[in-house]
Design goal:
The complex is a heterotrimer of chains A (433), B (743) and C (164). By secondary structure, chain A is mainly alpha-helical. Chain A is built from 17 helices and 4 strands. Chain A is globular and about 75 Å long. The N and C termini of chain A lie far apart (66 Å). In chain B, helix 2 packs parallel to helix 3. Chain B has 3 domains: 194 residues, 2-Layer Sandwich (Aldehyde Oxidoreductase, domain 4), CATH 3.30.365.10; 165 residues, Aldehyde oxidase/xanthine dehydrogenase, molybdopterin binding domain (Aldehyde Oxidoreductase, domain 4), CATH 3.30.365; 271 residues, Aldehyde Oxidoreductase, domain 4. Chain B contains 18 helices and 25 strands. By secondary structure, chain C is of the alpha+beta class. Chain C has a single domain, classed as Ubiquitin-like (UB roll) (Roll), CATH 3.10.20.30. In chain C, 40% of the residues lie in helices and 13% in strands. Chain C has a 5-stranded mixed sheet, with helices on both faces. In chain C, a hairpin with a 2-residue loop joins strand 1 and strand 2. Chain C is globular, with a radius of gyration of 17 Å. The termini of chain C are far apart.
């Protein structure tokens, strides 16, 4: 055959193969059911589902800002464009009202909607695929007993070809690992429960695991650090930037109560995680804390030693050349809350020598916290920090952070810090200063 | 007629030149015999009973400038304006012609504390009556001067005017005379039909300065050569200072003095920020030994219930429930709550040869003076306390304690004024709280839905540890030779402390009410706005709803059926009607609730209907709408009343929905607004309407604390209406609502 | 030496450069408006406007304020000639103790500069950082609505014009 015809044949075969694969990977429609009567779900099951939903933190993605619970419509910013969360309230028209348990389970495990369409892995079905039947049943019971809210969710804003859902068949073929989590007999039941929750419902890797070019988690580097909504999510393992190593007790305090004496308060997307964890089953939160803490190297040093080191470090606080502005800003703007060791006046804020954000080579978490502050949910007690965006200029924020990086973070200067601050500020507010 | 020469008196001396004397005897033959009230005469109204000389209240100088004195203090409740209205009304002058001097131990009558919503009843009544008598005195003087009967004379524009047009100004009338004359009971007041100012919403005289940066608060005082102090309060009650290394602080720029006396630590510096940094440095250098002396927070009410108590009877019913009647029972609780003044307490003090001057926002300058005299060892007449406004105190907050700190620091730096400002954390952790309280109610309903028997008990720590004596000042506990806090006693009825409003106003045949007074104070407590009334009304009004529900009756009708007082039923009817109670349409998540009380069963009547919205998923409850009706007797300033009631409704909503002091075994952990959240704009209702029912010619009824109790119960009742959950433990947090609703 | 430009006037102050602006305003310049409420950036009693942004002056060291424009309540208007915003607060009698009010007015001022015709929801959201303990919120919102009523009316009129 002539070369051109060979080319045409190859292209035809390729297209046929792709088309065939896509056709083969289509999922059928699952028939709609009558909207279940909420009273038909056993109370205990619904309660169990509520606690599991608190670990899964379904609410945070599936509820719009100031919108009705679980009715979707929240814009999730991904590197590929905006995706709007679906309505998972049991509304018959725009929610899950007509979804059977089987349809729900298929969505959670395989990322396929009731009508057979592929769901985007912004919905972490690649984690939820690990859920047991019992847990799925409980979650279904929980969701189907929420108040139904009809809500037309905006269409996703993805460019071609990403807006072609069938393309996800390839992604799933490459990256969806449907194997369940196998318990490790050499570990305690608590550890194993934690392993199951972290790998599955908790979907921690969604933020804390790095992703490859096609947006899938790099399984070999699980929990070694990732990113979410512009916030670097630090490594949970041996590379954790926390100056004082985490242990199960402190991690439990952090997850359950939203703050820890040795690590401070969650910020950014992590805040909604701990807000939700306060409603989860305490046993499960401990299990997660146990499992994750075990990813860190065991510490043999006395618990108190890191604190003392940290305090000592911050006391060698004399500014070096070029640091006067930063030191002065820190003294006037930060010390009132963050100065160490003051039982009466402070601390409200973490002793900054303990701050993970200042120990990270990526300055963005520190920048985001300073610019945006920390805000507990309305009327709730919780760590509070004012936003310095608009109060301090980008240059001033950079000076203060550079000083803190050296004196509290004990780390090398962050490169081009003022530009980084400007970029983050611009992304936050649409303007810089 | 006789015109007696000026009698030198301390008051006359202190008031400066131009002492003015007028003898009442010259116009009122009944008094010619002497200057005391006749035996068997009616008691003098309001605070005149205690301070009966007219010139204690009103002075007029030779130029006709009129000064009005009150022993009460402006707390932000608008009392200055209302008192000026009363005086101006009776003296028939414009309010701006008057100068008002408030609580000052050197200048004004001793009217005790500005508390308990007494200001209008006590001071307002006294000033009004004194002003009326001064007016009649002036008319009498003019009549004497012109040799005409008083009947043809009238007053206007600060002068007495005759029918033929002759006039003589007040100043000229009292030239070289004084008003050091005994007040008489039952003077002639300006008749209602002739009132120009009473009933008018005169704009508050203090607001313009407050919105344009004028000096308005003790925090704004700047005296020549003034230094700045900061106290270092211990991290917990009973903490002992083990060691403190002062050396790191002494050389700090601007540092003037470090005060160290046993557990008392303070710094004084030239500039305020220097004092703050010195305080922070000293705090870092101080080592305290603390004890785990606080009750286990999870068992607080059990702990309180087992503390030794003193039983105070309030109503002596049998406490028995009739056989066969339907019996309802409920128990309620309230967490410790804090005043949380938005501006932490502040005082300025100066020690000179003449004595100690203290500028303070205390509610009681005279009692504070006694306490500071005791604390410092100075004789009483060498201590002067002048009230200067602070931020809203809502009762006994840190004001007296910081005044003591200022006094101590003034002693450390004699001659120079020292301004001491408490920090936010200090105000939060050391102010005396509103006590935690437990109540228990039991009642029997007849088949035709009448309450047959009622048995109610309230348990509480004290609601007053006001100084008083120095033993109620924190500084006195911290210094060497500490003065022990005196054992508190229950406040007497009819006003009461923890048992304020414990007796229901409702007509109940057999009602027993008992107060279990707990003298112990695991957390520091004292008077907080309303005292026991807030919790007792919460309990009674929640319980009335529970009874109405059991009876299948409308909550408003049920209350009206048990009230004989028409003023009570009037406010209830007005609030219900304006709210649209009868035609209320319930939408999902929303409900309505009602609350009523007569504050102290003696003061203002208030009824409030509210609508709340409950989010089932989070338990978050929002007050969406409130409609209140209030009867404060004769209304002096209607907008002043509305302002107080609106504010009271919102403040009560914040207390009721969010507030409870947090603590662990050692420390108070509610240290700032992040650890003690209060209402913010996002939770503020859509509308609040206050309807004022005016009763001209009737006595003033204290109003400042009338809204808090009824609002709290109305909210709890509305939550029940919205989601069918009966919550009985204040604060009615989202977590509690959620836990009760379930998933 | 720190140069602070407050209400249009430059001041040379010999103070510790770490001094929070609040203390400089009150102590060095004798201005009463901005108040100490918490020193922690939680209550807003210290609110002033810096380069158009409502700011907690208790947490802003003066070294960071050089070269920037500080506006305090004294710069809006005085007791003899209050600004329309201040007058609205007087007309609504929007104060009980009044301690929070100067901070409220500055926060409102910054809000109105950015959104001349704010809706009720925008007003409440804009004022969220400021606390009032007396419960004067309703009047504060009314005062802001009052002073922006004309702008809202004008915006509505011009909206209707564009729809024709």
């Amino acid at each position: 055959m002539r070369p051109r015809r060979v080319l045409y044949l190859l292209v035809f075969l390729l297209v046929a193969a792709i088309g065939g694969f896509v056709w083969w990977s289509q999922f059928p429609l699952i028939d709609r059911i009558e909207v279940p009567d909420p009273a038909s779900f056993e109370r205990n099951l619904v309660d169990a589902g509520a606690k599991l939903a608190a670990i899964g933190n379904c609410r945070s993605c599936h509820t719009d800002r100031n919108g009705p619970e679980f009715a979707g419509g929240r814009a999730i910013a991904t590197p590929y464009g905006k995706i709007y969360s679906t309505n998972i309230s049991p509304a018959p028209g725009t929610g899950l009202g007509h979804w059977s348990e089987a349809a729900f389970a298929r969505a959670m495990r395989q990322g396929i909607a009731r009508n057979g369409a592929h769901l985007y892995p912004a919905f972490p079905y690649d984690h939820f695929t690990r859920l047991t039947d019992n847990d799925l049943r409980a979650l279904y019971a929980f969701l189907m007993t929420r108040p139904p809210v009809e809500n037309f969710v905006p269409a996703n804003e993805l460019p071609f070809p990403l807006n072609q859902r069938w393309g996800l068949a390839f992604w799933n073929a490459l990256f969806l690992d449907r194997r369940p989590v196998m318990p490790d007999p050499s570990q305690s039941p608590e550890w194993n429960r934690g392993a199951y929750l972290v790998a599955g419902l908790g979907h921690c890797g969604d933020c804390h695991t790095p992703r490859n070019l096609l947006g899938a988690e790099e399984r070999s580097r699980a929990l070694s650090g990732g990113e979410a909504e512009g916030w670097p999510a630090p490594s949970l393992g041996p590379d954790s930037p926390a100056p004082v190593p985490w242990n199960a007790e402190h991690l439990f305090a952090y997850l359950r109560h939203g703050s820890d004496t040795e690590h401070g308060a969650p910020a950014g997307p992590m805040q909604s995680v701990t807000d939700a964890m306060s409603h989860a089953d305490e046993v499960d939160v401990r299990a997660i804390a146990t499992y994750v803490a075990n990813l860190q190297p065991a510490t043999t040093t006395n618990d108190k030693a890191p604190q003392r080191q940290a305090t000592a470090a911050s006391q060698s606080a004399a500014p070096g050349p070029g640091e006067e502005l930063g030191a002065t800003i820190v003294a006037g703007a930060c010390a009132g809350c963050h100065a160490p060791g003051q039982p009466m006046v402070a601390p409200h804020g973490l002793n900054l020598a303990l701050s993970s954000a200042l120990h990270q080579s990526d300055p963005r978490d520190a920048i985001l916290i300073v610019l945006g502050g920390l805000h507990p949910s309305a009327e709730h007690s919780g760590p509070m920090m004012p936003a310095f965006s608009g109060t301090l200029t980008d240059a001033q924020v950079a000076a203060a952070l550079q000083y803190l990086r050296r004196h509290s973070g004990q780390g090398p200067a962050w490169a081009d810090l003022e530009d980084r601050v400007r970029d983050v500020h611009h992304a936050m507010t649409g303007s810089g200063s | 007629m006789s015109i007696t020469p000026p009698r030198p008196s301390r008051r006359a001396f202190l008031s400066g030149g131009g002492a003015l004397i007028v003898s009442f005897a010259s116009i009122n033959p009944l008094v010619a015999q002497g200057t005391t009230a006749l035996p068997g005469a009616a008691p003098l109204p309001g605070s005149l009973a205690k301070t009966s000389m007219l010139d204690s209240w009103i002075r007029i100088d030779a130029e006709g400038a009129i000064t009005v004195f009150t022993g009460k203090a402006e707390l932000g409740q608008g009392i200055k304006t209302a008192l000026l209205q009363l005086a101006a009304e009776e003296l028939v002058v414009a309010p701006k012609a008057l100068r008002l001097v408030t609580a000052d131990t050197a200048l004004t009558p001793d009217e005790g504390y500005t508390a308990g919503s007494h200001s209008m009843q006590d001071s307002g009544t006294a000033i009004r009556n004194a002003a009326a008598q001064v007016r009649d005195l002036l008319i009498g003087l003019a009549a004497a001067q012109w040799q005409v009967p008083t009947a043809g004379l009238f007053v206007e524009g600060g002068a007495v005017i005759a029918a033929d047009g002759r006039s003589i100004s007040y100043g000229k009338l009292v030239a070289d005379q004084n008003l050091h004359i005994q007040a008489q009971p039952q003077p002639v007041l300006v008749p209602v039909a002739k009132q120009r100012l009473i009933g008018l919403s005169l704009p508050r005289i203090d607001i313009p300065a407050k919105v344009t940066g004028g000096a308005a608060y003790v925090q704004d005082m700047r005296l020549p050569d003034m230094a700045h102090g900061r106290v270092l309060l211990p991290p917990s009650y009973g903490a002992v200072l083990r060691s403190v290394d002062i050396s790191g602080v002494e050389h700090l720029p601007g540092l003037l003095k470090v005060v160290h006396d046993a557990n008392y630590l303070a710094v004084i510096a030239e500039r305020e920020y220097q004092a703050v940094t010195a305080m922070q440095a000293l705090a870092a250098a101080a080592v305290w030994h603390e004890n785990a002396d606080l009750p286990e927070p999870r068992n607080l009410f059990e702990t309180l219930a087992h503390l030794p108590g003193e039983t105070v009877p309030v109503l002596n019913g049998s406490g028995k429930m009739p056989e066969g009647a339907q019996i309802i029972e409920a128990a309620y609780s309230r967490a410790y709550q804090m005043h949380g003044s938005i501006g932490p307490s502040c005082a300025v003090a100066q020690l000179t040869d003449g004595g100690l001057s203290v500028w303070t926002h205390t509610q009681g300058v005279f009692p504070l003076r006694a306490a500071l005299a005791q604390l410092t060892g100075l004789p009483l007449d060498k201590v002067r306390c002048t009230h200067v406004e602070g931020s809203g105190c809502y009762g006994h907050n840190g004001a007296d304690d910081v005044a003591a700190d200022a006094a101590i620091m003034a002693f450390a730096l004699p001659g120079r004024p020292v301004r001491v400002q408490w920090m936010r954390e200090q105000e939060h952790t050391w102010e005396p709280y509103g006590s935690a309280m437990l109540t228990h109610a039991r009642a029997a309903l007849s088949p035709d839905h009448k309450i047959l028997a009622w048995d109610y008990s309230v348990g509480s720590c004290t609601h007053s540890t006001r100084p008083g004596g120095a033993g109620n000042l924190v500084a006195a506990w911290l210094r060497s030779n500490p003065i022990a806090q005196p054992a508190p006693k229950p406040l007497p009825l009819p006003e009461g402390g923890g048992h304020r409003n414990a007796a229901p106003l409702y007509s109940i045949m057999d009602a027993r009410v008992v107060y279990d007074f707990i003298p112990d104070m695991p957390l520091r407590v004292s008077a907080m706005r309303g005292l026991g009334a807030y919790m007792n009304i919460f309990s009674i009004e929640s319980f009335m709803d529970e009874l109405a529900h059991a009876a299948g009756a409308d909550p408003v009708d049920f209350r009206v059926d048990h009230l004989g007082d028409i003023r009570a039923t009037d406010v209830i009817a007005r609030a219900a009607e304006r709210f649209g109670w009868a035609g209320y349409f319930r939408t999902p998540g929303r409900g309505r609730g009602f609350g009523f009380a007569r504050y102290k069963n003696l003061a203002a009547y208030l009824a409030v209907a509210v609508e709340v919205e409950v989010d089932r998923e989070t338990g978050r409850t929002r007050l969406r709408r409130a409609v209140a009706a209030v009867d404060s007797g004769e209304v002096v300033n209607p907008d002043g009343i509305r302002n107080q009631i609106e504010g009271g409704i919102l403040q009560s909503a914040s207390w009721t929905l969010y507030e409870g002091v947090q603590f662990d075994r050692t420390r108070i952990t509610s240290r700032d607004w992040s650890s003690y959240p209060i209402m913010r704009f996002s939770a503020v209702p859509d509308t609040v309407d206050v309807h004022v029912i005016n009763r001209p010619g009737t006595p003033f009824l204290g109003t400042g604390e009338a809204a808090q109790g009824p609002t709290s119960a109305a909210i709890a009742n509305a939550i029940f209406d919205a989601v069918g959950i009966r919550l009985r433990d204040i604060p009615l947090t989202a977590a509690r609502v959620k836990a009760a609703i379930g998933v | 030496m720190i140069t602070l430009t407050v209400n249009g006037t430059a001041h040379q102050l010999d103070i510790d450069p770490a001094t929070p602006l609040l203390y400089a305003l009150r102590g060095e310049l004798g201005l009463n408006g901005a108040k100490f409420g918490c020193g922690l950036g939680q209550c807003g009693a210290c609110t002033v406007v810096v380069d158009g942004e409502a700011t907690y002056s208790c947490l802003l060291p003066v070294i960071a304020v050089q070269g920037r424009q500080v506006l305090t309540i004294e710069g809006l208007g005085g007791i003899d000639k209050p600004s329309p915003l201040q007058q609205a607060f007087i007309d609504e009698q929007a104060a009980q103790c009044g301690y929070c009010i100067a901070g409220m007015i500055m926060r409102a001022h910054a809000l109105i500069q950015k959104t001349s015709a704010p809706t009720e929801a925008q007003i409440r959201e804009g004022m969220e950082p400021n606390l009032c303990r007396c419960g004067t919120h309703m009047r504060i919102v009314r005062a802001i609505r009052r002073v922006t009523a004309e702008a809202r009316e004008a915006a509505l009129v011009s909206f209707r014009e564009t729809r024709r």
